[in-house]
Backbone:
C-alpha cells in the first residue's frame, strides 16, 4: 500500500513537472520568411516579433523548427510542445489550442504570370484556374472549400514557383510574404507576376490546451504583452 502511494505521488510530480517547467516550448513551422532555420537556429520575421513579446511578458522559452504545419500541430495536440507560432486560425487548430491576440496579419493572395489574362474577380476564374497552393495550410483549406481545382499542393514552397513557370498551374494561392520571399531564391522580380489580395488573416500564437489547463492566467499575460508590443507599431 505504501509503495503504491509513493508511486502515485511520484507519478503526479512527474506529470506536474511537465507543465511547471521554467521553459515554455514553442515549435515553429518551416514557413519562411516568418519562421525557418538559419545556422542551426530558428530565425525569421515571426521569431523577431514573438521574441520581443515573450520577453516583455517575462516568459522563458525555447524554440525549435518542427517542420510542416500538420506536424507541429500534431505535436501540440500530443503535448510534445506547449505552443506554436505563427499560424492563422481554423477549427481543427482550435480543437487543440487557444489562439492568441493577433501578432500580425497574413495577406492571402493570388499570383499569376504577368502576361496571364486570369482575374480572380472574374466569374470564370473558378472554372479556369488551375491552382497551386501549399500542403496542409489554411490557404489550401480555403481553395478546397471554395471549390477550386487544385493541380498541385506540394510541401515545399519553391515547388509552387516551378509549377507556375512550367505551366502546370496557372494560379498560386499563398501568403503574399511567403511567395515573394521564395522569388528571391530564383532571382525573380515581383513585377513579373500579377498579385490579387483575397483577404487578410490574423497571424498569431497558439497555446496548447494541456499547457493552459496547467498554467491558468498564462493566456491573459501573453495577450497583454502582444497588445502592448504590437501597439508600438511592429
Residues:
Amino acid at each position: 500500500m505504501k509503495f503504491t502511494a509513493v508511486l502515485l505521488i511520484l507519478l503526479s510530480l512527474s506529470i506536474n513537472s511537465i507543465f511547471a517547467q521554467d521553459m515554455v516550448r514553442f515549435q515553429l513551422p518551416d514557413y519562411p520568411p516568418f519562421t525557418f532555420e538559419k545556422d542551426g537556429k530558428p530565425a525569421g520575421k515571426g521569431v523577431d516579433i514573438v521574441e520581443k513579446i515573450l520577453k516583455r511578458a517575462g516568459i522563458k522559452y525555447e524554440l525549435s523548427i518542427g517542420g510542416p504545419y500538420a506536424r507541429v500541430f500534431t505535436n501540440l495536440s500530443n503535448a510534445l510542445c506547449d505552443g506554436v507560432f505563427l499560424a492563422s486560425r481554423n477549427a481543427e487548430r482550435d480543437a487543440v489550442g487557444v489562439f492568441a491576440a493577433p501578432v500580425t496579419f497574413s495577406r492571402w493572395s493570388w499570383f499569376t504570370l504577368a502576361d496571364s489574362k486570369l482575374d480572380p474577380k472574374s466569374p470564370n476564374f473558378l472554372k479556369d484556374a488551375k491552382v497551386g497552393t501549399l500542403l496542409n495550410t489554411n490557404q489550401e483549406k480555403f481553395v478546397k472549400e471554395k471549390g477550386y481545382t487544385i493541380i498541385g499542393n506540394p510541401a515545399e514552397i519553391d515547388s509552387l514557383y516551378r509549377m507556375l513557370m512550367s505551366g502546370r498551374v496557372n494560379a498560386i494561392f499563398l501568403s503574399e510574404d511567403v511567395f515573394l520571399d521564395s522569388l528571391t531564391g530564383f532571382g525573380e522580380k515581383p513585377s513579373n507576376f500579377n498579385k490579387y489580395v483575397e483577404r487578410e488573416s490574423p497571424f498569431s500564437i497558439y497555446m496548447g490546451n494541456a499547457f493552459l489547463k496547467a498554467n491558468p492566467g498564462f493566456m491573459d499575460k501573453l495577450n497583454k504583452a502582444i497588445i502592448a508590443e504590437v501597439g508600438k507599431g511592429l
Residues 1-20 have pLDDT under 50 and may be disordered. The longest strand covers residues 193-208. The longest helix spans residues 2-19. The radius of gyration is 21 Å.
